[in-house]
Amino acid sequence: MTHEPALRRLAIEVTRATSNNLFQVATLIMAATALEVSIDVLFRDEALLKLRRGRINVPEWSRAYAPVMAELAERLKAAEFTDMESFLRDAKEHGDDVRYWACSETLADQRVSLAELTSLLDGERDRKEFLADAQNADAVLTF
Asked: What is the pTM of this model?
């Protein structure tokens, strides 16, 4: 008896710009690609601004990690984490159907161009269109 996969398509909207938030998103993508899930990720607001070329690799962990930053740094080093851009690239490359999108509204509101952001982005998408398309996903998550 064959089972239809419970999760075939995943939509993720990312709004928060902390390093731990992006780390969680990338980790989730890596796990979901093991299931051969199609994944669309929309970065908007502060999360999109975090993807600027000069900022993406700047550590911006939430204050909750302040008491354990030294231990966290050691654990990340042991796990061969080098930088956020590489980690997001690795997550994307784990799957055959993973796309990273920049929110058109954030680009316009913040007067930011795609050229200022990481090359990992596949292009820009309107948030309303992304959310309408996400209705066809098996799960929609927000970080």
From this structure: 0.92
How many domains is the chain built from? 1
Please report, as a single letter, which amino acid is at residue 140: V
- Whether the pLDDT of residue 55 is over 90: the answer is yes
Domain containing residue 80: 9-142
Which CATH number fits the domain that encloses residue 72?
Answer: 3.40.1260.10
What is the average pLDDT across 115-138? 97
